[in-house]
């Protein structure tokens, strides 16, 4: 393969949910960049794709700090970019693997911008977002007819959330693990709690589906958790 930087979405967790194109490219590239959030934690993205990799592929499992401190992020990104561009300069193809889709709240987006700015060729291979898998798993439609769908990272400022909740027909709330109880309160305030479901580790070992959100108040949930919510239809 030529020296191309690929961003590959590996989906929500089930290795069978990768696209055919993703598995083909994964079986051909020279280098894999697998992000992890902590030194003591394995890369889930790497676990998902392991069966599709060539024995001789070079794998770099690199730390992506879970912080919004720009100085810390810049230092980490520069180190990762150097690993990527060094391989590309040697004529190797590089695939950055990421959970869900590369262009939706993904660490890949930052790498893509930095690599593209240096005029290396890039290609993005989409993946199934976690909320699509969660909707399929629970049988809960994301949107019907003329309804709107609002996708919200639950780390948004509280003032922003109230206005979004008040107007939403259907909500996807991502990254709810830190602000779960606050989110549940807001869902109740805006008439969305009774038709809300929390899905944790969708399609993976330890999957949890909770239809009564009051049951999980004050209880910790896994990082890979989201909430799907729908407004009750008007009578």
TrEMBL record:
Species per Swiss-Prot/TrEMBL record: Heliorestis convoluta
NCBIfam families tied to this protein: cobI_cbiL
UniProt-listed CDD domains: Precorrin_2_C20_MT
Family of the protein in this entry: Belongs to the precorrin methyltransferase family.
Keywords, sorted A to Z: Cobalamin biosynthesis, Methyltransferase, S-adenosyl-L-methionine, Transferase
Pfam families tied to this protein: TP_methylase
Record's protein name: Precorrin-2 C20-methyltransferase
Pathway: Cofactor biosynthesis; adenosylcobalamin biosynthesis
Any single biological process term in GO: methylation
High-level lineage: Bacteria, Bacillati, Bacillota, Clostridia, Eubacteriales
Single GO molecular function: precorrin-2 C20-methyltransferase activity
Enzyme Commission number: 2.1.1.130
Recorded superkingdom: Bacteria
Domain Tetrapyrrole methylase: 5-215
């Amino acid at each position: 393969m030529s020296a191309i930087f690929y961003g590959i979405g590996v989906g929500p967790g089930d290795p069978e949910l990768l696209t055919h194109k993703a598995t083909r490219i994964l079986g051909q590239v020279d280098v894999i960049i697998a992000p992890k959030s902590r030194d003591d934690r394995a890369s889930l993205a790497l676990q998902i794709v392991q069966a599709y990799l060539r024995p001789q592929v070079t794998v770099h499992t690199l730390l992506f700090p879970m912080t919004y401190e720009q100085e810390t992020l810049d230092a980490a990104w520069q180190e990762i970019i150097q690993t990527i561009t060094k391989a590309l300069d040697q004529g190797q193809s590089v695939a950055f693997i990421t959970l869900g889709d590369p262009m939706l709240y993904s660490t890949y987006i930052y790498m893509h911008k930095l690599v593209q700015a240096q005029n290396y060729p890039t290609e993005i291979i989409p993946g199934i977002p976690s909320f699509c898998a969660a909707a399929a798993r629970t049988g809960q439609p994301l949107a019907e007819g003329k309804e709107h769908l609002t996708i919200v990272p639950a780390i948004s400022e509280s003032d922003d959330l109230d206005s979004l909740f008040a107007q939403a027909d259907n909500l996807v709330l991502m990254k709810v693990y830190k602000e779960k109880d606050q989110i549940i309160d807001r869902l109740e305030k805006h008439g969305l709690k009774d038709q809300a479901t929390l899905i944790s580790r969708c399609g993976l070992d330890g999957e949890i589906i909770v239809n009564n959100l009051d049951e999980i108040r004050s209880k910790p949930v896994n990082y890979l958790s989201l909430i799907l919510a729908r407004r009750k239809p008007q009578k």
